[in-house]
Amino acid sequence: MVDNNVRYTKTHEWARRDGALVTVGISDHAQHSLGDIVFVDLPKAGASFKAGQVFGVVESVKAASDLYLPVSGKIAEVNAVLAGAPETVNTDCYGAGWFVKVEAENAAEFDALLDPADYEKISSLE
Questions:
Q1: Which phi and psi (to 5°) does residue 52 adopt?
Q2: Could you point out which of 41, 71, 78, 111 has its C-alpha 20 to 30 Å from the C-alpha of 17?
Q3: Percent of the chain's residues with pLDDT above 90
Q4: CA atoms of 25 and 13, how far apart (whole Å)
Q5: 126 confidence band (pLDDT: 50, 70, 90)
Q6: Which domains are present in the chain?
Q7: CA 20 vs CA 16, 95, 104, 105: distances in Å
Q8: What is the pLDDT of residues 37-87, one digit of tens each?
Q9: Separation CA 51–CA 93 (nearest Å)
Q10: For the whole prediction, is pTM greater than 0.90?
Q11: Is the pLDDT of residue 14 over 70?
Q12: Distance between CA 115 and CA 111 in Å, rounded?
């Protein structure tokens, strides 16, 4: 399932712009490929990252995968629910299973992300 209201990275993160904030998570394709998610390691609010930089790790029964931030900026909020219920990513990856909210520094980075149709082409090749 592809959410038509978000943009995507080639590494399967999604980004949704809401005013000055960009909410970030992983795609349905990514959570399905990982299997049952058992742990999520996220940064603290206030940390700054550049686009494409590793900002966390998601661990499943199958593997651990780095998370790459789609846009440069400062972490404004971290999804505290995932500390006690990481499986939320499996059940609602585009909703309650989001990872971080970022104060984006550069709107052009968001605009350069893959649109849903282009992401669907990439994810169907895997």
A1: 90, -5
A2: 41
A3: 92
A4: 6
A5: low
A6: 7-105 (2.40.50.100)
A7: 11, 19, 7, 9
A8: 999 999 999 999 999 999 999 999 999 999 999 999 999 999 999 999 999
A9: 21
A10: yes
A11: yes
A12: 9
Q: What are phi and psi of 29, to 5 degrees?
A: -60, -45
Cα(126)–Cα(123) distance, rounded to whole angstroms? 6
Question: Residue 81 corresponds to which tokens in the numbers above?
Answer: 């629910």
Contact call for residues 113 and 23 (beta carbons, < 8 A): no
Helix (H) or strand (E) holding 110: helix 107-111
Maximum Cα–Cα distance across the chain? 36
Within the chain, strands assigned E span 7-8, 13-18, 21-26, 37-41, 48-49, 54-60, 64-68, 73-78, 100-104
